[in-house]
């Protein structure tokens, strides 16, 4: 066999073989592999790219305390101003004292663990690549479309609004936790959109009136321990398509790109992360920004995170979105063309997490 043939390999066939096990990355770990498969290997030197990794002590994303927001108008204005600054300069911020009970946070993380660590034959019954299914479990939603490496991560996804599944359509392992957690996310989401609207100088109901709260998609990510964490990624560089509330455990590994530096996002007890996402960057005409982030693989594992996306995403939606008219003027003309949300999301999913911005293709 030639050297060329040794170097090159049929990535599609190996991805398909991996997919057909329905066991995900966890299946590789359960098989006690000591080397990660070729499809999960990053090009040499990718992690040590020109962007510097810095610790949270050098550069820290904003932490915003919601405790005083209901006290009086002045306290609320302080919080709104902090949100305006964070959304415009970082695209990410951590919130504490947000009102979601710690018990609900712990239970949804436990539910993610229970689902991914249950008997494989039970878990396989939920395996699908049909995004229209009520509950979707697989590894790497962009397995066949992305040119990046196969990420060291398994996931489940479920729309909990506007048309939530019947309880019996959810796995027993995470059923009660999903139902309870989604209620808290919808409540926090409504409040968050009020504050974001005010941070834009708009009526507090503006973003909600534009159907920003219409859909809630919850993803439960499971990052197994990796035998060679320096050779792959838990999640490749990407920006989210919509605003996200992220819960992560205490293992860490999330990094946000800020001023050409990868900044570690250190978990805080009971905190939640807010990620602005592409749609809000478009709708705010760049007043708020959507930024790249990634998750490093690690030996400690399993790392757990729960992402709540406020978007109808792949659900049928004929609404056309563009920069909010109150935010544009002759001096500040629209920077993006109008988009159809469903069409946009399908393109985003096909592109996959390849480290490039899909939003940039909609710039005027």
TrEMBL record:
<dbReference type="GO" id="GO:0051213">
    <property type="term" value="F:dioxygenase activity"/>
</dbReference>
<dbReference type="InterPro" id="IPR044861">
    <property type="entry name" value="IPNS-like_FE2OG_OXY"/>
</dbReference>
<dbReference type="GO" id="GO:0046872">
    <property type="term" value="F:metal ion binding"/>
</dbReference>
<dbReference type="InterPro" id="IPR005123">
    <property type="entry name" value="Oxoglu/Fe-dep_dioxygenase_dom"/>
</dbReference>
<dbReference type="InterPro" id="IPR026992">
    <property type="entry name" value="DIOX_N"/>
</dbReference>
<keyword id="KW-0560">Oxidoreductase</keyword>
<dbReference type="Pfam" id="PF14226">
    <property type="entry name" value="DIOX_N"/>
</dbReference>
<comment type="similarity">
    <text>Belongs to the iron/ascorbate-dependent oxidoreductase family.</text>
</comment>
<feature type="domain" description="Fe2OG dioxygenase">
    <location>
        <begin position="214"/>
        <end position="313"/>
    </location>
</feature>
<keyword id="KW-0479">Metal-binding</keyword>
<dbReference type="InterPro" id="IPR027443">
    <property type="entry name" value="IPNS-like_sf"/>
</dbReference>
<protein>
    <recommendedName>
        <fullName>Fe2OG dioxygenase domain-containing protein</fullName>
    </recommendedName>
</protein>
<dbReference type="Pfam" id="PF03171">
    <property type="entry name" value="2OG-FeII_Oxy"/>
</dbReference>
<keyword id="KW-0408">Iron</keyword>
């Amino acid at each position: 066999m030639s050297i060329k043939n040794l170097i090159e390999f049929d990535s599609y066939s190996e991805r398909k073989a991996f997919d057909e096990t329905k066991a995900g990355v966890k299946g590789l770990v359960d098989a006690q592999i000591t080397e990660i498969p070729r499809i999960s290997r990053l090009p040499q030197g990718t992690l040590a790219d020109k962007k510097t990794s810095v610790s949270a002590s050098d550069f820290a994303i904003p932490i915003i305390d919601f405790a005083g927001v209901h006290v009086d108008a002045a306290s609320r204005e302080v919080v709104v101003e902090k949100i305006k600054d964070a959304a415009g300069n970082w695209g990410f911020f951590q919130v504490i004292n947000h009102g979601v009970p710690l018990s609900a946070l712990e239970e949804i993380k436990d539910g993610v663990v229970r689902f991914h660590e249950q008997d494989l034959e039970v878990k396989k019954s939920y395996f699908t690549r049909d995004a229209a299914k009520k509950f979707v479990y697989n590894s790497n939603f962009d397995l066949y479309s992305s040119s990046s490496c196969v990420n060291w991560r398994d996931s489940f996804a479920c729309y909990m609004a506007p048309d939530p599944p019947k309880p019996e359509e959810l796995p027993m392992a995470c059923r009660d936790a999903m139902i309870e957690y989604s209620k808290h996310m919808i409540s926090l989401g409504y409040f968050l959109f009020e504050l974001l609207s005010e941070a834009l100088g708009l009526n507090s109901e503006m973003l909600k009136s534009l159907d920003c709260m219409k859909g809630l998609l919850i993803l439960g990510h499971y990052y197994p321990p990796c035998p060679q964490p320096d050779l792959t990624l838990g999640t490749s560089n990407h920006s989210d398509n919509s605003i996200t509330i992220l819960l992560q455990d205490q293992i860490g590994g999330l990094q946000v790109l800020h001023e050409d530096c990868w900044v570690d996002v250190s978990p805080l007890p009971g905190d939640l992360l807010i990620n602005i996402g592409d749609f809000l960057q478009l709708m705010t005409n760049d007043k708020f920004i959507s930024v790249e982030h990634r998750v490093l693989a690690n030996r400690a594992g399993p790392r757990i995170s729960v992402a709540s996306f406020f978007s109808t995403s792949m659900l049928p939606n004929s609404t056309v979105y563009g920069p909010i008219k109150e935010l544009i003027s002759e001096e500040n003309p629209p920077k993006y063309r109008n988009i159809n949300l469903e069409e946009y999301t399908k393109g985003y999913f096909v592109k996959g997490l390849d480290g490039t911005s899909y939003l940039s293709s909609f710039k005027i």
